């Protein structure tokens, strides 16, 4: 029985192939900043519908696979809304759920705005009993006591941005809901730790009427009882349509990225080459994102303030 409890505990940890805050670690968050910061909702001149698929650690059996669909738009000049549905699978564990966010934007100058957002989420953690292997067949703990849980939580976001730059701060798992994996006398629990992100990016035009622009960006992640992590990124964007870039994830991986976009469609791909000891046992991670763009209120009329513009290139 103790061995089975240990298996359940390790299985749950293996089932969070994510940021240390139990949210999936995407490599192309600069394409879809809403996954990192709910304050991004309604800040574009278009309404992006983003579909993302990530296959992690190729070559390892039952390695993490994740999918998400997100959408956000502006309801008015100062109000935005967004939502995301996600599904993450690793071995016998699955985390599915949805997140909704409401944001408001205020003008801080002729050329900048500040966006605030609150987000609510519902996560369902599930364990597939048929995939658990124990020392005893038909173990009583697995059959009768492993449970699926529906977990609510809250998040927030702040984003200051202008034509060519943005700085954002966001947090998730604010409630720190306690997850019980098994309904037994000594329950195996896991706290959804509070996690915070600080990110920023800047568009550098190369020339007066540039065909080529550079976009350096960075993301820092902090969670109590977990190592501090950060990413450094650089993209080169040609004619606001084609781009390629790279990313360094501290002590974890090097990422190569490429993509293109039109006024209505964007497609991008990234490959993660591991730097940790785990890289000896896998062939890297693959990720694809598809972005469908439609007009929103800011794109039609909310930009009535002629002094304020938004950079239409698919930037972070």
Record the SSE blueprint:
Blueprint: H1 2-14, E1 46-55, E2 65-76, E3 79-90, E4 93-107, E5 113-127, H2 140-145, E6 149-161, E7 165-172, E8 178-180, E9 189-191, E10 195-202, E11 204-205, E12 212-223, E13 229-238, E14 242-249, E15 253-261, E16 265-274, E17 285-295, H3 297-300
Antiparallel strand pairs: 1-2, 1-17, 2-3, 3-4, 4-5, 5-6, 6-7, 7-10, 8-9, 10-12, 11-12, 12-13, 13-14, 14-15, 15-16, 16-17
Supply the CATH architecture: Beta Barrel
Count of the separate structural domains = 1
User: Strand share of the residues?
Assistant: over 45%
CA-based gyration radius: 21 Å
User: Counting H and I runs of at least 4 residues, what is the number of helices?
Assistant: 3
- Could you spell the SSE succession in H and E letters? HEEEEEHEEEEEEEEEEEEH
Structural class: mainly beta
What can be said about the biggest beta sheet?
A: 14 strands, antiparallel, barrel
Can you describe what's shown?
By secondary structure, the protein is mostly beta strands. Helix content is 7%, strand content 51%. It has a single domain (2-304), classed as Porin (Beta Barrel). The chain is built from three helices and 17 strands. The chain starts with a helix and ends in a 16-residue tail after the last helix. Residues 1-21 and 300-314 have low confidence and may be disordered.
